[in-house]
């Protein structure tokens, strides 16, 4: 299958321009070198005898300057190929929509609503489902994005230049000018450092997150409008006003609030983050307000205004005398424009406020006040033949207020449970408790915590450690924020490594202490701050339902949930995909996560609590990655019930949100899947299938543990992957390890997966699957039919197999063998590589038997072709990386510090290039 003509043209155009830049910047010889490496890589891929060794030999002959040019050229090529593929994705989406005509296109909001109507959902049932619907996408700053923001900006400009040439016939001079502009961008891209010279600060990561919100500001109204149109088509009697539609897609962030293992995230920095997010939202609302005020200049001499509107304006001006001067700058007959001036002034006052309070009494305190004022305007327009005007100029703003509020994204705070234990041990000691909290039993801890923390703030200042004082400063910041500006700015307090109910009660006790400790009305009832336990390991996932049951059985905690103000109290539980996979392997983690969510839903139902599962999914296949909509469809239906939270990490931010059309499609598919699962359209799998999957998980777990506990495994990982250089890369503010490494468990799951991706093993996304399936089939006398039926009919099993298939497709076991040769002890390298290669072949053969396909990804030819066409460009980068690692170790042994630094920088560039080529990191 050949590339679509436009995609082929785009790739060839960009490649030709890149070759021109390489020639200009590095010389013709460099351009010939790149062509030679690509040719040798193609020969290797088609299996020409000796091509593998010829390519490796040629790379060994390169000097550092030649390597630097080759790495830069190949890395930029992947940026351009990714750009062209993204444009093709947008074209395909448009073509599918055109082909659908007036019928709902697949995996759209219209398709979801039509399916639910066909399934018999009445208008009232549909409205109930919509009232519960909430997809909360939480951006994180995990260090998986190797590309700096400047590079993103240049690529974005290139994409727009190329997009502008589509579908138009350019004059010769226009075509020349377009090519010159792209050549200028490429020249700039060639000359800048592709990697940051130093790690980003946390605030720089906050700004990077906002970089992707530009598109979301425009996409959110379109998404909400699509749902309104779908509901009107299928359920004409449901409310159609934008304000009647809840915020069914929301956004959150960990950036600036994730303290787990990151010493740079302090209470002061979290306060700055909250201000930055608030400022970004208010500035955008001000821009909308000013834009609309230039248009809505109709006079009440021609168009009547509703009495409700007139009364509200008079009441506002009477209540806030400071608004009169601003209002009087607009002619009194232009009532809508005058009202918008009042809104603008109140927004400006909110923007001018710093910290937790505003100096102006009329400043908007929260989004509800702003929304009420804008809805008042909209309602008056509609009541006086201005419904088209409202739809064109006001509805989008209403949608943006509902989606983003005055906070843009809620901010979560995360901390390791062990930190809370250490802080509480100090506090109880200061409070005169004889019992050592750190050494106390679970029963003793719960008893102490439920008594409250009767420790004065003055005592704490003198006797606590810096870490404890910093932790308490954070809780007091959260309390001040809620008291002054409401709870809408905060997402929740996430507790990493939650092992016991006392870990949750610990946060509640600290929150109660902080609420009383800050100045103000000490008698005000305790505000609700969501406390979110995070179950990460296989064992914690297994014990999670028991912990939840115990939590909800504690009257004080159950009463606390009731203070949320929600009609139905809810508990957010986060489940971790990364650490569970590192702990137990791909299949055991997938099954453990599924079973944990099923049982958590049962416990929540028993206690009359609404469960919201927060999915800690990474971008890579070994950390819960893959198509998000498919992942949602594979979840236990009872675990969703209309709502879910999900992290959006690392490279997926750029892949999903850097183009507005792709961002819309991603959000649409996620919402489509959530609606369908929540609407009860999924079939319950037979009990024998769930039992079979449990047995597979146990077999897979044992095989995985056999590998990671094998003698020499840590040496294989440390020496047979570029993990050492990944940990040194300046791509994130957070250290790669929570604590000084003593074992594999101290390594974060992100660099763990990143390293296995770089050496083309992709091991976290498939290892153990083949052994489990082959052994199970052998017990059934070679009968694969049950697994084939499970794949055809059960979305959960289908997602497991499909994600493993993609990982196996991107893996290259022959290149993996060359990384294994980097291990100092050849016997360890050969033994473990043989074990991995054997499991790879079993896994590959097993998924082909289950899917019935002749080759991996045969049912997805465009993806198969994309991988095949990228490999001749990725392979040389891998082999260059291997050669550089060898040279780096030799230089380090000889004490040549200057060479070590140069070679280390080159290795980092190959890591970035391979990540771009594979479109995945960690």
Would you identify the regions where 5 or more consecutive residues have pLDDT less than 50? none
Largest sheet: 8 strands, parallel, barrel
Topology-level CATH name of one domain: TIM Barrel
Look at the helices and sheets and give the structural class: mainly alpha
Extended strand count: 8
Number of helices: 40
Provide the CATH architecture of one domain: Alpha-Beta Barrel
Q: What distance lies between the first and last C-alpha atoms, to the nearest angstrom? A: 30 Å
The CATH class of one domain, by name, is: Alpha Beta
Going across the major beta sheet, what is the strand order?
A: 1-2-3-4-5-6-7-8
Taken from the alpha-carbon principal axes, the silhouette is globular
Calculate Rg over CA atoms: 29 Å
User: What is the overall pLDDT average?
Assistant: 89
Helix content: 55-70%
Tell me about this structure:
With 922 residues, the chain is mostly helical. Among the domains are: 298-395, no CATH class; 416-678, Alpha-Beta Barrel (TIM Barrel); 683-721 and 759-859, no CATH class. The protein has 40 helices and eight strands. An eight-stranded parallel beta barrel has the order 1-2-3-4-5-6-7-8, surrounded by seven helices. Helix 5 (109-118) packs parallel to helix 10 and helix 11 (267-293) packs antiparallel against helix 14 (335-352). The longest helix is centred in the first third of the chain and has 37 residues, at 64-100. The chain is globular and about 85 Å long. The chain starts with a helix and ends with a helix. The mean pLDDT is 89.
Keywords summarizing the entry:
eight-stranded parallel beta barrel; TIM Barrel; about 900 residues; mainly alpha
């Amino acid at each position: 299958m050949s590339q679509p003509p436009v995609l082929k043209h785009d790739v060839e155009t960009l490649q030709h321009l890149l070759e021109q830049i390489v020639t200009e910047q590095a010389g013709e010889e460099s351009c010939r070198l790149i062509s030679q490496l690509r040719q040798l890589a193609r020969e290797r891929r088609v299996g020409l005898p000796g091509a593998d060794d010829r390519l490796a030999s040629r790379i060994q002959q390169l000097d550092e300057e030649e390597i630097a040019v080759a790495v830069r050229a190949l890395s930029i090529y992947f940026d351009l190929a990714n750009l062209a593929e993204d444009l093709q994705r947008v074209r395909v989406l448009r073509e599918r929509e055109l082909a659908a005509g007036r019928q709902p296109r697949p995996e759209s909001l219209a398709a979801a609503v039509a399916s639910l109507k066909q399934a018999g959902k009445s208008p009232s049932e549909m409205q109930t489902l919509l009232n519960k619907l909430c997809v909360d996408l939480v951006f994180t700053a995990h260090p998986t994005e190797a590309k700096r923001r400047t590079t993103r900006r240049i690529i974005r400009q290139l994409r727009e230049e190329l997009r502008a040439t589509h579908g138009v016939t350019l004059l010769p001079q226009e075509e020349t000018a377009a090519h010159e502009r792209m050549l200028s961008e490429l020249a700039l891209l060639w000359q800048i450092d592709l990697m940051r010279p130093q790690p980003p600060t946390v605030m720089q990561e906050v700004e990077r997150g906002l970089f992707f919100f530009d598109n979301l500001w425009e996409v959110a109204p379109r998404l909400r409008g699509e749902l309104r149109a779908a509901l009107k088509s299928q359920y004409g009697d449901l409310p159609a006003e934008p304000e009647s539609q809840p915020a069914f897609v929301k956004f959150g962030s960990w950036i600036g609030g994730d303290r787990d293992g990151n010493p740079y995230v302090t209470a002061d920095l979290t306060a700055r983050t909250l201000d930055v997010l608030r400022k970004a939202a208010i500035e955008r609302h001000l821009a909308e307000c000013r834009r609309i005020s230039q248009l809505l200049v109709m006079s009440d001499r021609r168009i009547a205004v509703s009495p409700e509107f007139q009364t509200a304006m008079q009441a506002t001006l009477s209540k806030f005398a400071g608004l009169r001067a601003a209002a009087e700058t607009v002619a009194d007959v232009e009532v809508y424009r005058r009202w918008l001036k009042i809104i603008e002034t109140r927004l400006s006052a909110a923007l001018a406020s710093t910290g937790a309070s505003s100096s102006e009494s009329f400043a908007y305190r929260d989004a509800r006040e702003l929304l009420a004022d804008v809805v008042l305007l909209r309602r008056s327009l509609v009541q006086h033949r201005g419904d088209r005007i409202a739809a064109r100029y006001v509805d989008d703003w209403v949608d943006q207020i509902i989606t983003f509020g005055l906070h843009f994204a809620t901010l979560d705070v995360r901390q390791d449970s062990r930190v809370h234990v250490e802080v509480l041990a100090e506090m109880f000691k200061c409070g005169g408790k004889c019992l050592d909290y750190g050494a106390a039993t679970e029963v003793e801890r719960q008893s102490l915590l439920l008594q409250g923390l009767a420790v004065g703030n003055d005592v704490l200042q003198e006797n606590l450690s810096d870490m404890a004082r910093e932790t308490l400063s954070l809780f007091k910041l959260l309390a001040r924020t809620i008291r002054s500006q409401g709870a809408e700015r905060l997402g929740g307090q996430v507790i990493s490594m939650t092992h016991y109910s006392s870990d949750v009660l610990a946060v509640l006790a600290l929150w109660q202490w902080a609420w009383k400790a800050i100045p103000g009305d000490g008698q005000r009832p305790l505000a609700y701050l969501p406390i979110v336990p995070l179950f990460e390991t296989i064992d914690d996932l297994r014990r999670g339902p028991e912990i939840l049951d115990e939590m909800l059985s504690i009257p004080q905690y159950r009463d606390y949930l009731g203070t949320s103000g929600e009609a139905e109290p809810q508990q957010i539980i986060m489940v971790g995909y990364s650490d569970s996979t590192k702990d137990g392997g791909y299949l055991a983690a997938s099954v453990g996560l599924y079973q944990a969510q099923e049982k958590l839903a049962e416990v929540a139902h028993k206690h009359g609590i609404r469960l919201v599962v927060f999915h800690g999914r990474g971008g890579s296949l070994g950390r819960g990655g893959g198509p998000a909509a498919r992942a949602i469809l594979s979840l236990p239906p009872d675990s969703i019930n209309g709502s879910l939270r999900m992290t959006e990490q690392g490279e997926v931010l750029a892949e999903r949100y850097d183009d507005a059309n792709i961002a819309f499609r991603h959000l649409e598919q996620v919402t489509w899947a959530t609606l369908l699962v929540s609407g009860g359209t999924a079939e319950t799998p037979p009990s024998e299938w769930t039992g079979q999957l449990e047995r597979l998980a146990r077999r897979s777990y044992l095989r995985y543990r056999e590998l990671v506990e094998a003698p020499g495994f840590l040496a294989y990982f440390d020496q047979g992957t570029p993990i050492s250089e990944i940990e040194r890369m300046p791509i994130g503010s957070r250290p790669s390890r929570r604590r000084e490494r003593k074992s594999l468990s101290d390594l974060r799951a992100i660099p763990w997966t990143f390293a296995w991706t770089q050496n083309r093993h992709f091991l976290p996304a498939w290892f153990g699957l083949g052994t489990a399936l082959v052994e199970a089939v052998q017990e059934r006398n070679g009968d694969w039919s049950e697994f084939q039926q499970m794949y055809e009919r059960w979305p959960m099993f289908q997602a497991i197999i499909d994600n493993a298939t993609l990982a196996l497709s991107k893996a290259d076991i022959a290149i993996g063998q060359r990384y294994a040769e980097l291990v100092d002890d050849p016997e360890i390298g050969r033994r473990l590589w043989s074990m991995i290669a054997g499991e790879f072949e079993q896994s590959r053969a097993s998924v082909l038997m289950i899917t019935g396909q002749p080759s991996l990804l045969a049912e997805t030819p465009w993806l198969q072709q994309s991988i095949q066409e990228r490999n001749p460009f990725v392979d040389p980068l891998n082999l260059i990386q291997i050669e550089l690692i060898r040279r780096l170790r030799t230089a380090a042994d000889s004490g040549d510090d200057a060479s070590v630094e140069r070679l280390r920088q080159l290795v980092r560039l190959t890591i970035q290039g391979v990540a771009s080529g594979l479109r995945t990191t960690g």
